[in-house]
Amino acid sequence: MTSPLTPPPVTSPPVTQPPAIQPSAIQPPAIQPRILPYGDHAILVDWSADKFSDRINDTVHALAAKLRKSGKYREIVPGYDSLVCVFDLAKRSADATKRHIEDILARDISSETKTGKTIDIPVHYAGDSGPDIERICEASKLTLDEVIALHSGQTYRVCMMGFIPGFTFLSPAPKALHHPRLETPRAKVPAGSVGIANWQTGIYGLESPGGWQIIGRTPLSIFDAKREAPFLLEAGDHVRFIPQ
Amino acid sequence: MTLTVLHSGTQSLIMDAGRPGHRHQGIPGGGAADKLSFAIANHLVGNKWNTPALECALGGLHIRFEEDHVIALSGAQMWSQNQGLNLPLNKAVPVEAGDILTMSFTRSGCRAYLAVAGGVQGKSFMGSVSTYLPAKLGGLDGEALKTGAMVHIGPKQGEPNSLPKGHTPLLSNHVVLRAQHGPEWEALSDSAKRYLFTTPFYATAATDRMGTRLKGDLLALETPVNMTSSPLLPGSLQVPPDGQPILALVDGHCTGGYARALQVIQADLWLLGQIAPGAAVSFRRSLAEDAAAVLKSKNSFYADLIPGFTF
């Protein structure tokens, strides 16, 4: 990597208690992301975590909130373990944007994420609403009721929105339910479909093509342009699935 | 004040400058795919640069004006006539009630912009009337113009303008895009890195406002890329495992999971709207230290001419 924007060597957060080390008081060091140019008008902040981490996603959203509040950028797009900040090259440089991000990340901001709202999502599991749930029962050797109980038995965090309006990417499903995508994506997945793709679980906000294993469907509209508040959910919220 | 769509054409859409700032909600900025040509068309008829206009892809749009208007065409070079008389590109022209405008096949470029003094009207969503087909936003009920549709025209804003010589963008069927490395550039094989900047690609029929699938030398990845879904921008060239790259365009997905090999520079993003199926597409390396100067000179070239417009 020869880019002028490669991050500086990782510096550990300052430790300010030299004499008596109390193991319980030591926080694990914050994981330092790579801060890379993404073309000439965007910066990518990339934690590239092997495993989903609440703490990294908290940091992503806290960083997104601070950058958005500054009003200096065209787009702030948070991901699971990454964030893209789009600036106007006529008004800002990549270096200035990078420094702004580094300044914010100089201290651990993972606890500053505002906790969003929690929404109950009614779901019709199985049947026509969830044509792929049998496959997950077979692979996990669980009964239908057990799969439903597992999937609806935890609260999920909304980690990011997109790729289309209203598509809701959630924190990981319970391990027994992890399953690869369909080998051939469907041309049409109905709006409200709840699916699984590897460790990810999520909700299709609109009818769209898609390759996730569909296990159920909610009658709620995650995105409705005609509604006064078009988006039911935003990143940082939490959802609970309520079997119907 | 209206115009009537006599023939809808390949894809004719109501567009303005789009709704930027919502990619975190899965809503692309969208708007006119070629914002420069769109701004020029508006400027010529005396509109503010971001006034809603019609974006006509590949031709086929026929329109009847129900009153006298001033119109201008910009962007793709189409064989266009009013009442059977050839219409010039990049020039404000008066039309009369009952006149029929026909936009036929495209010679170069992909999208022509038809601006009408006063602008066209559509349904606003998040501050923009730009049509976004996947979620049926903006436009006339979120859809492309249909034959028989009536499009309303707003009140006149100002006097027509002309374009000084040399300010007309030249469009070609070989679109050359300046680009810098994307975040996953290093995942490409050495041969793929070389091909990207030395050989032309061709836009396949799988080309729309969301993206264009390119055909050319296969781009091999040095290492398999197993990414968690991550944000994606217009002008990103993604390389999936099959080696056929996909260029994200103005309505492109907000997140993606393939290697982002290249990113088109800000100064050239407007050209993404002029890639027609079958066009050649080449990438030229842009150096990080040059891009800001390129943008500055392009902005200042149009700044005095079109108030408020920037790339």
Would you spell out the secondary-structure blueprint of this structure?
The complex is a heterodimer of chains A (244) and B (311).
Chain A: E1 34-37, E2 42-46, H1 54-70, E3 75-78, E4 82-86, H2 94-105, E5 118-125, H3 133-140, H4 144-151, E6 155-161, E7 168-170, E8 186-189, E9 193-197, E10 200-203, E11 208-210, E12 213-217, E13 238-243
Chain B: E1 2-8, E2 11-15, H1 35-44, E3 53-57, E4 61-65, E5 69-82, E6 85-86, E7 93-95, E8 100-116, E9 150-152, E10 174-181, H2 190-198, E11 201-207, E12 211-215, E13 230-231, E14 236-239, E15 246-248, E16 255-256, E17 259-264, E18 280-285, H3 288-303
If you consult CATH, what is the topology of the largest domain in chain A?
A: Cyclophilin
Structural class estimated from helices and strands of chain A: alpha+beta
Count every helix of chain B, treating DSSP H or I runs of 4 or more residues as helices: 3
The CATH top-level class label of the largest domain in chain B: Mainly Beta
The helix count of chain A comes to 4
- CATH superfamily heading of the largest domain in chain A: Cyclophilin-like
Q: What share of residues are in beta strands of chain A?
A: 25-35%
Distance between the termini of chain B: 32 Å
Taking the sheet with the most strands of chain A, its summary is: 7 strands, mixed, barrel
> Helix fraction of chain B?
10-25%
Give the overall form of chain B.
globular
- Give the second-level CATH assignment, the architecture of the largest domain in chain B: Sandwich
Our measurement of the CA-to-CA distance between the termini of chain A, rounded to an integer number of angstroms, reads 52 Å
Largest sheet of chain B: 9 strands, antiparallel
**Roughly how many Å is the radius of gyration of chain A?**
20 Å
Low-confidence stretches of chain A: 1-27
